[in-house]
Amino acid sequence: MENLRQGTGGKTSASLRTAQAKTLSQPTSVSSPKTVSSPAQSHVARVKMSGGSAVGGPNTKDVKQMLLDWCRVKTEPYEGVNIQNFSSSWADGLAFCALVHRFFPEGFEYCTLNPYDRKSNFEKAFKTAERLADCPPLLDVDDLMRMREPDWKCVYTYIQEFYRCLVEKGLVKTKKKMP
């Protein structure tokens, strides 16, 4: 099932891949490992450190866990939100709303949200993120409504893009890379 908006902008799975590529190429604390160019660097990149990450950066599992932990910390004070994964924890839309509200409290009143009105929650979060964070509308509300819980890869990609937009606006500080 296509979980992407297909509207006036013609967004399809290609736009999701473009957003993923943009997200992964941005210098953030949850960026992917750098590519290596020489055979010696390739060998070093394959050597594992005790934490399970390759030299040169965190592996995909570490990045996913770091982003999940970041979401959990940012939404912790919000009632009705308990982020444990990138799927069922986002099903009622409150986690999206809480994360967006954390950075843009002027966007809407969180206390007025209804956990049983999934559609309204998704719409409020995505429209606010698009308007205030310049986050592209990668997820389609109608697609989300057809599923009991969203596809984790789609949620993960959307959150990566939202994070990237926050970094661009200077609302999230990232660690500086060592030379």
Automatic annotation (TrEMBL):
This is Smoothelin-like protein 1 isoform X5. It comes from Danio rerio (Zebrafish).
